[in-house]
């Protein structure tokens, strides 16, 4: 399907009755790469979890739509089937389910019954993607993320993203814990997906990832809102100067979100 649009409008999200997101507006179209930056604890991961429908995060206002369909009405698995993919900041370990089985059932969940991916085709595609990401083949038969190093987990998220053929990918700190070579490999994986049918939201703290994946748009989140948007010059300025200048420019008081 060509051209998806994920539209987030005035999104309010609470956790245990505490409001974390206070009106987020963001539109991601396929073909576009968006970076989201911002100080710790400002709600970036909350945004990612709310988009995917994590039950802990209560949406108290606003809307999320994918091609006009109400995402908030969808169950988590329906969101994945609709083409949303989240690479979590802290990927979960699932004991007893091999990486390969998990991948295959995730792919099949997005296909019609009776149109499951043929096993040989799946193995070939997985082998190719693992080669591309320079992953050890025995990772396919290990239990999902169990005992994986931090960097191996992140690389495995990209393996899933590449194989799932998602329409919109949300990558939460995909660069954290990666060594210098792994950072380049993960970036190479994301760049390989860049085409008019794929849009991406990349949550990151550092310019180092954006040196390899050039974002079309950079957004800054503070205190539960997107407070500033720009192009890649914005992330370069943040890298050089930190966040104080934005707070001054926008007259944002220094309050922690937990205050
Ligand atoms: N499950 C939860 N229970 C209680 N508080 C939570 C929960 N999840 C998030 N919070 C709080 O919500 C706020 C926003 O957290 P979030 O993880 O979205 O921040 P972040 O912008 O992703 O930060 P970081 O850059 O450190 O990853 C924080 O104050 C956090 O403590
Ligand atoms: Mg986070």
Automatic annotation (TrEMBL):
Family the entry assigns: Belongs to the ABC transporter superfamily. Ycf16 family.
Keyword ATP-binding: yes
SMART domains (alphabetical): AAA (SM00382)
Domain of life assignment: Bacteria
PANTHER family: ABC TRANSPORTER I FAMILY MEMBER 6, CHLOROPLASTIC
Pfam family, one: ABC_tran
GO molecular function, one term: ATP binding
Coiled-coil ranges from the UniProt annotation: none
InterPro entries associated with the record: AAA+_ATPase, ABC_transporter-like_ATP-bd, ABC_transporter-like_CS, FeS-cluster_ATPase_SufC, P-loop_NTPase
Membrane-crossing segments per the record: none
Keywords in alphabetical order: ATP-binding, Nucleotide-binding
Annotated ranges, domain ABC transporter: 6-248
Protein name per Swiss-Prot or TrEMBL: Iron-regulated ABC transporter ATPase subunit SufC
């Amino acid at each position: 399907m060509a051209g998806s649009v994920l539209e987030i409008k005035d999104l309010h999200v609470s956790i245990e009755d505490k409001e974390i997101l206070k009106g987020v507006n963001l539109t991601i179209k396929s073909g576009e790469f968006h970076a989201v930056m911002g100080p710790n604890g400002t709600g970036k991961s909350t945004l990612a979890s709310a988009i995917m429908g994590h039950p802990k995060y209560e949406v108290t206002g606003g809307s999320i739509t994918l091609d006009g369909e109400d995402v908030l009405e969808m169950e988590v698995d329906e969101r994945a089937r609709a083409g949303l993919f989240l690479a979590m900041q802290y990927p979960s370990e699932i004991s007893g389910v091999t990486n390969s089985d998990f991948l295959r059932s995730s792919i099949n969940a997005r296909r019609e019954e009776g149109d499951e991916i043929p096993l040989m085709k799946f193995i070939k595609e997985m082998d190719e993607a693992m080669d591309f990401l320079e992953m050890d083949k025995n990772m396919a038969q290990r239990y999902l993320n169990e005992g994986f190093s931090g960097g191996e987990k992140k690389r495995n998220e990209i393996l899933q993203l590449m194989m799932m053929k998602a329409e919109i990918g949300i990558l939460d700190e995909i660069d954290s814990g990666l060594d210098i070579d792994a950072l380049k490999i993960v970036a190479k994986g994301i760049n390989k997906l860049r085409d008019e049918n794929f849009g991406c939201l990349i949550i990151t703290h550092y310019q180092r990832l954006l040196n390899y994946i050039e974002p079309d748009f950079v957004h800054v989140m503070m205190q539960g809102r997107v407070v500033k948007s720009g192009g890649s010059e914005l992330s370069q300025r943040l890298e050089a100067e930190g966040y104080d200048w934005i707070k001054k420019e926008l007259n944002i008081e220094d309050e922690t979100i937990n205050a």
